[in-house]
Amino acid sequence: MSALVLDAHEIHVRFPLARDWRGRAVRHAHALNGVSLQVRRGEAFGIVGESGCGKSTLAAVLMNLLPPTQGELSRLPRADGRPADVQIVFQDPQSSLDPRLPAWRVIIEPLVAAGRRADAARGRRLDKTALRARADALALQVGLRPEQLDRYAHEFSGGQRQRIAIARALAPEPDVIVLDEPTSALDISVQAQILNLLRELRRAHGLTYVLISHNVSVVRHLCDRVAVMYLGQVVEQGPAAQVLESPRHPYTRELLDAVPRLDRPWPETAPSAPAELPGNGVLPQGCFFRGRCPWATTGCDRPQTLLARPDEPLHAYRCHVAGARKGV
């Protein structure tokens, strides 16, 4: 089994909604509520859930862009003792690229900003020519021509801009790349190209991915393991094949049932819409999904913990009813 590279334990994030006359927060939005996950070197770990479940907040925590209110995030050290380096590819490639810089400068921006140079270990400092050569090499890896790199962001298509963003994430040779909805702003055909590129890069460089998405098909295509989030909690976690093909938690089942499929006839009457995602200003008592759950029963008013069956020790879910139902 591969070594851990990221270890998040009981991460909570709260944002103040209202303050008293002394400036102290009296009401909070509970964005993350005890998220624990471990990412191993070389794997692709998927995080799925509907809008508002806390996926992007978790991405910010993993990037150290947002400190957790409570809990601990560990980046396991490299062989040289330095903590694991984490880079990110954002959802919107247009807004994530500096419009004032040519593409080659955008790509090597992490190296310049961090004061890092590719040949620092050999005592040499890279000059502009060497930096440009580094950008050209990265461009070729992501399917761009080096002569294109003198253009600015607005002169590229959406797919090309996302390739530039991927090249920028690769520049400092990171241990982990967080992919925050990397294809949702792209056309369907371009989405497939970017996903195939990500698979090829992972194979070539031994990369570790944390893929955040609401698109179950993307996660199924790219990920080894997956965590399903609801209202700031992980409600189900395990190997992607098990979770997406044999879901245990009722929320995971509803999430997958909402995905259109060609092998499933469209119902003659639309199902009644479930209750909306509850607000995170005041958290529900007991199971967070209880108010929307078709299986809700006695005992659901108590807090649920992630549990696994003895015959499926890697597949855990936060539901005592699912654990008791045969054939589920």
UniProtKB/TrEMBL annotation:
Top-level taxon of the source organism: Bacteria
Domain called ABC transporter: residue spans: 6-256
GO molecular function: ATP binding
SMART domains in alphabetical order: AAA (SM00382)
Keyword Cell membrane: yes
Entries under Gene3D superfamilies matching the protein: P-loop containing nucleotide triphosphate hydrolases
Keyword ATP-binding included in the entry's annotation: yes
Cited InterPro entries: AAA+_ATPase (IPR003593), ABC_transp_ATP-bind (IPR050319), ABC_transporter-like_ATP-bd (IPR003439), ABC_transporter-like_CS (IPR017871), Oligopep_ABC_C (IPR013563), P-loop_NTPase (IPR027417)
Family: Belongs to the ABC transporter superfamily.
PANTHER family from the UniProt entry: D,D-DIPEPTIDE TRANSPORT ATP-BINDING PROTEIN DDPF-RELATED (PTHR43776:SF7), TRANSPORT ATP-BINDING PROTEIN (PTHR43776)
Name the record gives this protein: Oligopeptide/dipeptide ABC transporter ATP-binding protein
